[in-house]
Amino acid sequence: MTTPSTPITYAGAGVDVEAGDKAVELMKASVRRAQRPEVLGGLGGFAGMFDASALKGMARPVLATSTDGVGTKVAIAQRMDKHDTIGFDLVGMVVDDIVVCGAEPLFMTDYIATGRVVPERIAAIVSGIAAACEVAGTALVGGETAEHPGLLGPEEYDVAGAATGVVEHDDVLGPQRVRAGDAVVALASSGLHSNGYSLVRAVFDRAGWALDRHVEELSRTLGEELLEPTRVYARDLLALIRTPGLDVHALSHVTGGGLAANLARVLPQGTFARLDRGSWTPPAVFTLVQQLGQVPVADVERTLNMGVGFVAVLPAEQADLAVRTAQASGLPAWVLGEVSDRATAVVQDGVEVVHGAKGVDGGAVQVVGTHPA
């Protein structure tokens, strides 16, 4: 056995424990702002603790949980060396999936893997996560930063998170509530959100567009557009659900798979939703991706949200109230389409009909018409 001429330390192997400790110190102030009264203990424990005694007042509390990441959008943050917004993308992808069933997201944890811990960079990432949790009304109760030298480059990192929420059993939203005659209301996205960035990056890289390029159609640089944070809907959606006079039947988070496929997941078998492209104009970035990359319409609609971040399904007579309620909170909304029985559905020939996706055998959705110029 050959022994090294000099001792090998953990730091020498690429893991800097002191840098990790410094990162924790830098993020403490941000995490303190993302709390709820039910949180017990502080940052640095082996586990985050949340007082669940309030659940005893619920008749049949149902816990909801979700986990997700940000995908290749982190590559944009790394190339721009701007790390304080990616947390909104992470929180939005996690907590807003929980709200789909009507649950209130209670607490969240995060995980950051990086090739080299740069305390200021880790603190910037966590500051965005904490700020987004504050917007969502969700407590950030803990997390982990792992240094993986040799697996990730020194400037590379990835983020993931998990959250838990609760809803009364009788208040669970979903396909079981949806009825023929319901309206579909769209809630606007803030842009690309966090899905489809492998396609988006491929389009702009092939075109040779640099991130600092000013794009007239976007009224800002390409990098600023691509790094636009995901809108966090949780608090506004919970307010919508709890609005007197509204009986929201289902919600759908428009993420990977696009509008039609994600709506189909929350529709019951035997129903058919017809959505009208004429009801909205997608933001310029979507048209730019499609035209610059010559991406087929069907492909871009299966990949990107096209300006619709969420949809709500509710009785048609309540649609106008839902739109006004959302708009009053600063969330653009409009009536997107309607739900019918499959037997009475108006199906447009030659237009794709999308059925349930991601293992869900749900309803069917058809998107028809053209977007306004």
UniProtKB/TrEMBL annotation:
One GO term in the molecular function aspect is: phosphoribosylamine-glycine ligase activity
**Span of domain PurM-like N-terminal:** 61-167
What are the entry keywords? ATP-binding, Cytoplasm, Ligase, Nucleotide-binding, Purine biosynthesis
Main subcellular location: cytoplasm
Q: Where in the cell is it found?
A: Cytoplasm
Biological or metabolic pathway of the protein = Purine metabolism; IMP biosynthesis via de novo pathway; 5-amino-1-(5-phospho-D-ribosyl)imidazole from N(2)-formyl-N(1)-(5-phospho-D-ribosyl)glycinamide: step 2/2
Answer whether the UniProt record assigns the keyword Ligase to this protein.
Answer: yes
Q: Which HAMAP family match?
A: AIRS
Sequence similarity: Belongs to the AIR synthase family.
Q: Any idea what this protein is called?
A: Phosphoribosylformylglycinamidine cyclo-ligase
What gene, per UniProt, encodes this protein?
purM
